[in-house]
Design a protein that fits this description.
With 150 residues, this protein is α+β, with helices and mostly antiparallel strands. The protein has helices at 15-29, 39-56, 127-137; strands spanning 7-10, 59-63, 66-71, 74-79, 83-89, 103-108, 120-122. The protein has a four-stranded antiparallel sheet with strand order 1-2-3-4, with helices on one face. It has a three-stranded antiparallel sheet with strand order 5-6-7, with no helix packed on it.
Length: 150
Amino acid sequence: MDSTGGFRYNSRWDGSTWFIIGLVAASGVIPCFMDDGIWPVVICLAMLIFVLVSFLSIYYRIDGDNLVVYTFFRPTAYPIGKIKDIRQTDSVLSAPATSLTRRLAITFTDRNILKSTMPLIISPVRQEEFICRLQAVNPEIHTPTSGTSL
């Protein structure tokens, strides 16, 4: 628990996250060896800073009855009481998640919450603790059998 009374979960970083950062950093190093001036280096460094800030700004908070997803420091609240189920997914859909593995797909009972039938895909660290905290607020959340690890 932090000073605001909620629980914060950073987005998980995995090999895919580090690959993207490495790719952007490598593309920023290449102009350093060319004789094209300083602007390509500045642009590549700005891209690297943008990617890092974007990745670092994705996190999730459980505040009372809401799951708040922060993307680029902009919060979006989802009612925990409307969560129908949480399951593991390997989907590569665009989502507020920094990893491509160990992602969770959250579906809601009311499709107006996301304004689509697609699930909310996130990748919090400490997933089992995260799910337990959500189920403490809404015990009706369906998850895979307890024998399988999330």
